[in-house]
Amino acid sequence: MYIVDSLVKVPVEKADEVISIYQNRSKSVDEQDGFIKFQLLQNDKKPEELTVHTVWETKEDYLNWARSENFKKIHDMEKNYPDQELASIVPIVKKYKVVAE
């Protein structure tokens, strides 16, 4: 299994807006081969810190998604989001290979 976490720090007053965006996400990733799960996590003590958490069967499955046209389309939409403060946020991405369960 392979896990990818993307941490975004948003202005605290815009956290609910970002959460709403993810609650209404396109879900195209859900159809990708090897995709297992998506979650949006909010830091309990720092509500402006949100983590996009995805779980994949293999690293290769994730890489296929990251190289796909759907991935490019979704991330291009994010870059063109009307709120340029949110659109300019660069996530901190961490990738993990599951080595024990």
TrEMBL record:
SUPFAM superfamilies: Dimeric alpha+beta barrel
InterPro entries: ABM_dom (IPR007138), Dimeric_a/b-barrel (IPR011008), Heme-degrading_MO (IPR050404)
Entry-linked Pfam families: ABM
Domain ABM: start-end pairs: 2-90
Keywords: Monooxygenase, Oxidoreductase
Domain of life: Bacteria
PROSITE patterns: ABM
Keyword Oxidoreductase carried by entry: yes
The UniProt record lists the keyword Secreted: no
One GO MF term attached to the UniProt entry: monooxygenase activity
Name used for this protein in its record: Antibiotic biosynthesis monooxygenase
Natural source organism: Halalkalibacillus sediminis
Lineage: Bacteria, Bacillati, Bacillota, Bacilli, Bacillales
